[in-house]
Amino acid sequence: MNTTLKDINTGSISEMEELPVPQNIKISNITCDSFRICWDMEPRGKERITHYFIDLNKKENKNSNKFKHKDVPTKLVAKAVPLPMTVRGHWFLSPRTEYTVAVQTASKQTDGDYAISQWSEIIEFCTADYSTVHLNQLMQKAEVIAGRMLRFSVFYRNQNKEYFDHAREAQDNRMLQSVKDNSGSHGSPISGKLEGLFFSCNTEFNTGKPPQDSPYGRHRFEVKAETLFNPDTNLYFGDFYCMYTAYHFVILVLAPKGSAGDDFCKQRLPALDIADNRFLTCKQGEAGDGGLVFHHAQDVILEVIYTEPVDLASGTVAEISGHQLMSMSTVNAKKDPSCKTCNISVGR
């Protein structure tokens, strides 16, 4: 049963005949901003219970910055409704975050004070990733600013020379997938889980070609777009974020149909029509042409994850003429939680 929660008033709480202490606490139905809680109680004094006090805290991170302000503990009070009850609130629950929870029973007295039980044992749990419902909300916000579509013909991936040498010598001339880092939205279901290779496809509006600068290395692998993106590929929306800057990033996933990456994404990410979406399209050319035509959104920076290994023989590697702009790197980049353009109301 859902229940309305409010912060506990730190006013007077009285001691009187003991109330039953919650035991065997169970947490279930966990989402990115809610959970269901229930427990057992001895029958003694049970009829006097009018409220439940819930002490909810983010679990202490041993690696946290000791100079940073600690999160204020969230103490909630709920009317004694039948269990289980759902605790819901994006203002105190964040996705993919570890919490501790303990419960007291309480009896409100005629003078406004509370008689309380002892605290229960402390239980730990972790909130979930964004669901496809939340990702669809993010996607709709991204569509608003995506802008017009520009034509492109290649995907490209920048790294240092040693990366490509290693691929040739130790990986059978292939670039192999790695697990996506923690950049972007904190609730993203692909961070730390999906394996793939990051590619770019954005072009300069005045040349129609990839930019000559990159934050990831001076050597660039280029591959024809149809090698990675074609009717045998599924396309998914992965994330939408910014890094305290005016420009925004959209993460998309390209997964060959039936691949392990495709199976992973089908269960977690919104699927896009490859020929009709606001970010990245692959369409059949006009009659007689027979080739595929590709377009990308102009006003967002696309980060495209391809879920399978890529053979260097399928493209070319060359040194770029521009600079390595390290400040543009999104490796483990944290999302701006205050940006109204790319945040939804379910934590960050």
UniProtKB/TrEMBL annotation:
PROSITE patterns listed in its UniProt record: FN3
SMART domains in the record: FN3
Signal peptide coordinates: none
Domain called Fibronectin type-III: residue spans: 21-130
InterPro entries hit by this protein: FN3_dom, FN3_sf, Ig-like_fold, PHYHIP/PHYHIPL, PHYIP/PHIPL_C
UniProt GO cellular component terms: cytoplasm
Cited Gene3D superfamilies: Immunoglobulins
A Pfam family assignment: PHYHIP_C
Family: Belongs to the PHYHIP family.
Protein name, entry field: Phytanoyl-CoA 2-hydroxylase interacting protein-like a
Organism annotation: Gasterosteus aculeatus aculeatus (three-spined stickleback)
